[in-house]
Amino acid sequence: MRLALALPVALLACGNQTSTVGDDAQALAQLQEELHQANAVIDSLKYTVDASNQIIDCLRAQVSSLQEVDARLYESVQQLYAKLRNWRTQAENQREQNQEMSAELERLRREKHRDRQTIARVRREADSLNSALLDANGALRRQVGHLDQLRDKLALARGEAAQAVQVFPAGEQSLREPGYMETGRKMFRKSYELIKPLDPADPRLRPVPMGQPLELEGDLCGLADRYGRLREGSDFAQEKLAGRVRVTFTNPLLQGSEVVAVVGN
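^ that's the sequence the OP posted. Answer follows.
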């Protein structure tokens, strides 16, 4: 409010105390034009904020449906969202101040009030305000560019997650107790079957791209998806090492599916 009252006063003091009414009106018109320019910057700022919010909404929707996403990426989106809300609030507050300053300018124009020192001070404040608005606009545009990069990274991450096999390695008891897996016996061999979707937030869930090896600690008792036990040779290959086993998925039909790896000591 202090800036709002100071700006119109300064706008009227453009000339010296001995200047004519015509010089005073010219100075007021020039400063009012600067005020219009500031409003134009605010409009651009609000447009940038709205565009950023749309991108953020899209990102948040993608993040919520993505099983494996970098936690730092999600935190960065949240921080940018808070910054954008802050800039939007500041822009709305500045618009109200500009409206108050514009009304005060018209009142001073009618009263022909002159004050050289006041108008010089308000001119400096107006220049500082316009500079801050331009800096804010540039900062928001950089953030929009960063959001575009985040959106591309999310799209890439989603594509990679869709092609990877989501593997949950654990002991048999650890898989049965939460209801993930059902066991039985078929043709003298123990059977495994995934009967419940895995928790995407569980840190033990590991995305494994097709054709890339996955090393598991201990002995591999079996691999299973929701259709039953996987077959070595047609669905995967394994290589036994000292105290661990290396598994490589070979069946492209497993891409994007969830698999439990039953391991033992």
